UniProtKB/TrEMBL annotation:
Residues 1-74 are annotated as: Disordered. Residues 1-10 have a biased composition (Basic residues). InterPro entries: DNA_pol_delta_4. The lineage of its organism: Eukaryota, Fungi, Dikarya, Ascomycota, Pezizomycotina. It comes from Aspergillus keveii. This is DNA polymerase delta subunit 4. It comes from the Eukaryota.
Length: 192
């Protein structure tokens, strides 16, 4: 048996003021196994909120909107589409007018110049259009800021406002495309 330890500064006659841990049945803390069957005060307080929600949407619609099916776009896709729509509804700036005037030949020259900067051959670029190659290169260029959760055109405008000099060719491709398709960054699609 190990020797008993002596407490410093306290004698056996002076009791300790520190509470004693009890592992008995009275001090047992457990989580509830199931939700209470009677409505609690919290759920009663939330009932007015539930009625206002049910007035705007039927319960069937709320369950359908929470479940994403292949025919419905992802929530992130909807957010990016709204951003892109807001950006394209603005009046045309001078950069926009310059970008619209860029020809297909200028886009090809730009891509040849960017492609020559790469260290080796690009993999899996055979089936991709020139515009998509330019946009993917822009998505992966970190000097223009993060690309996840933001529309490409909004990212381009933000980089331009911060004087990061994004390529005008990217804006050209973005303005000539559909607003619904191609506004979400490729890496954003992969990550979500």
């Amino acid at each position: 048996m190990p020797p008993a330890r002596r407490r410093r500064g306290k004698t056996a006659a002076t009791p300790s003021t520190q509470p004693v841990l009890s592992f008995g049945a009275k001090s047992r803390v457990t989580k509830p196994s199931a939700a209470p069957s009677t409505p609690s005060e919290k759920t009663k307080a939330l009932e007015p909120l539930a009625t206002t929600i049910s007035d705007t949407e039927s319960p069937k619609e709320t369950t359908e909107s929470n479940v994403t099916s292949p025919s419905q776009p992802h929530v992130a896709e909807l957010a990016v589409r709204q951003q892109a729509k807001a950006e394209t509804q603005q009046p045309l700036s001078e950069d926009d007018k310059k970008a619209i005037k860029i020809s297909k030949k200028q886009l090809q020259d730009y891509w040849k110049q960017e492609d020559s900067k790469s260290r080796g051959p690009r993999v899996h670029h055979d089936d991709i259009s020139l515009e998509e190659k330019i946009l993917r290169h822009f998505d992966l260029s970190s000097q223009y800021g993060p690309c996840i959760g933001i529309a490409r055109i909004k990212r381009w405008r933000r980089a331009e406002s911060l004087s990061l000099n994004p390529p005008i060719e990217v804006l050209s491709v973005l303005l000539k495309q559909d607003t619904a398709a191609g506004q979400r960054a490729y890496i954003d699609e992969l990550m979500s």
